[in-house]
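A further point concerns the way the authors explain their paired sequence and structure data. Showing the layout once, in full, would remove most of the difficulty. For illustration, here is how one protein appears when written out as sequence plus C-alpha cells:
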Amino acid sequence: MPAQNANAPLAHFIVDEEFRYEHDPCELKLGDMLDAEPEPETIEGLPASDALTPADRYLELFEHVQSSRLFPDSKTFPDCAPKLDPLTILINYRRARRVSGFNLKVFVEAHFHMPRPDGDLYVSDPSLTLKEHIDTLWPVLTRTPEDHYTYSSLLALPQPYIVPGGRFTETYYWDSYFTMLGLVDSGREDLLRNMADNFAWLLENYGHIPNGNRTYYLSRSQPPVFALMVELFEEDGVRGARRYLDHLLKEYAYWMDGSDALADNQAYRHAVRMPDGALLNRYWDDRDTPRDESWLEDIETARQSGRPPSEVYRDLRAGAASGWDYSSRWLRDSDRLASIRTTQFIPIDLNAFLFKLETTIANIAGLKDDTVIRQRFLSKAADRKAAINRYLWDEVNGLYRDYDWRRQRPAAFSAASVVPLFVMLASHEQAQRLTENLRLRLLTPGGILATEIDSGEQWDKPNGWAPLQWMAIQGLKNYAEDGLADEIAHNWLATVNRVYCQSNKLIEKYHIACTTPREGGGGEYPLQDGFGWTNGVTRRLISLYGEPGV
C-alpha cells in the first residue's frame, strides 16, 4: 500500500504502522481490510483550504521560523494571523530571502499579526476572595466570534466561549466541561448555553469535536466528554437532552470508525479489536507529522528515539489527544519522552468515557422511544464494561490500569483510574478496593497526584490537576466513599487558596507532593495562569464545601 500523504489536510484512512519496526503476532495487516488506498478526505462541509494548518500553508517559511526559534514558544507562530493572503506571503518570502541582508524577524512582523496572551492587561484585585476572583475572571477569559482574522489558524465559532488563559487563546474540548461546572455556580448560564451551541456546531460541521478550535487541532479530538456536558446542560435547564442524540451518535461514529472491519489483534484509528474479539479504544491523531504548536520539540524528540520519525510524531500527537500531554502513562521509559508509545496503550479513562457515551445514547434514545438504538447501545455498553473488567481491572491489586495491547500486559496505574467511578462503571466492591489504593498511593496534603512516578513530565508526580480532583471527588461520592472524597476536596481547596493568597492567581497545575503545596512545573511550556478548569472546579467546590479560610 503506498505511503499516506502526510501533508494532506486530513486523511480518512491512515495506515497504523507502529508495528512495522517490531515484528509481532499482533501486527496490523491493512491489506486484509482495504483493497486500495482511498483518496484523502477533507472535513465534510468545509473547503479544503480552511482545514490547512500553518505548516501546510507556509511550508518552508513555517519551518524556517520554527527551526530558528524566532519565538520562545513554538505555539506563537501557528497562532499568528496573516496580514495578507497566505500564498502572497509565501511568494514574498521566497523572493525576499534571496536578497542579501534578509531579516526573518522583520519579515514575519511585517506580514503577521502577533498573538496577544489572554489577560495580559488584567490585574487581579488582592482584596477579592477566591470566589469573587473567579467570578471576575470569566469576562477576561471570554472570546467572541468577532475576534477572528481571515486565514488565521483560529476556527471561528458561532457563539462566545471561554479559553483557559495564558498561551491557550482558543477553547479546548475536555477543559471546557470542567470550566462549565464553575459557570453554572457563577450564574453564567448565558455562557453555558453558548458553549453548548458551539460544541454541537463543531459536531455538525466536523463530525467530531477537535482538541481545540484551531486548524492544527482538527486531526484529533480529546477525551470524549460531550455526554457529560449534555448531562450538565440538562441539569441546568439549558437544553433538553433529546436534542443532542444525533450529536452524540456522530461523536460515537468518530471514535468507532473502521471498527466493524477489524479482525482480532488489529487496530484502526481509535478502535482496537482485542485478542478475544472485544472492542476497546485508544487515543489517536490522523496526522503523523510534527505538531504545528510544538514543531521543533517534536523533531528533537523523534531524533532521540531511534524510531521512524512518523511513528514518534503519531504517538506524540496521540498523547496530546489524551489531554495527558505528557505522562509516564505513555512512555516505555518513564524518564524519556522519546520512548513514547501512546497508540499501543488501551487507556482506562478513554474507555470509561466511551462507556458513558454509550449509556447516555441509550438513555436518550429511551426518552425518544427509540427502542432499537436503546437496546443496541445498552448492549455496546455491557460489552465494553465486560472488556474493561477483563483487560483494565487488576483483580490482584484491586485497581484499574491502562493496558499495553501490543505487549498484552497491564500498564500504568494513575489517577485516570477514578473515571470508572465518575461514570459509575465500577461495582461497589471495585470502588471500595480502588478507594484504598487512591488513599495509600495518590493522596497528598494537596489533593491526589496524577501518577506515582516523578518523570519530569507535567502529568506525573508531583503535580495535581483540577479535573482529576473533581472526578475523584464525585466518583467516590457515587459509591458513598464520602470520607476520602471530602478529604480530597478540602485538601485541593486549601492548595488553590494558598497559592491564590500568595500570588493572586489561579494556575493550571499544582505541586502537591509536599507538606506545603505550591505552583506546579514540568512539561513543554512554562506554567500558565488563568486558568479555565481550575476556576471551574474550584468555583463548584466552593459552592459545595464553602470558601477555604472563611
Notes: The two ends are 65 Å apart (CA to CA).
